[in-house]
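This part of the workshop introduces the protein records we will be handling. The structure tokens are whole numbers drawn from a learned vocabulary of backbone shapes. The record below serves as our worked example for the rest of this section.

===
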Amino acid sequence: MIESAETRLRRLKMRSWRRGMKEMDLILGHFADGPLATLGAADLDAYEAVLSENDQDLYLWITARINGGAGRGPAGIAAILDRIADHAADRLKPVR
């Protein structure tokens, strides 16, 4: 049976909020509640690849991007890691 787009998004959101490392729950969960629904099929595939990575590695790769460091991590998911980091950085900006 083929999974519907709605079911896929719900599954990805659940996996984003239940990572096992609270920091990654907060980073990926908020991304899943926001821009995830606007991603195309190829980007959703890349996001699923992100979810299969180890939380400790993901945290280092994403925070390095937030802090202006060189992009680390597998090249195949670099673009989606950049989007996740940009979204997290925007959330961290002080409200004026």
Notes: Residues 16 and 28 are 5 Å apart (CA to CA). The chain has a mean pLDDT of 93.
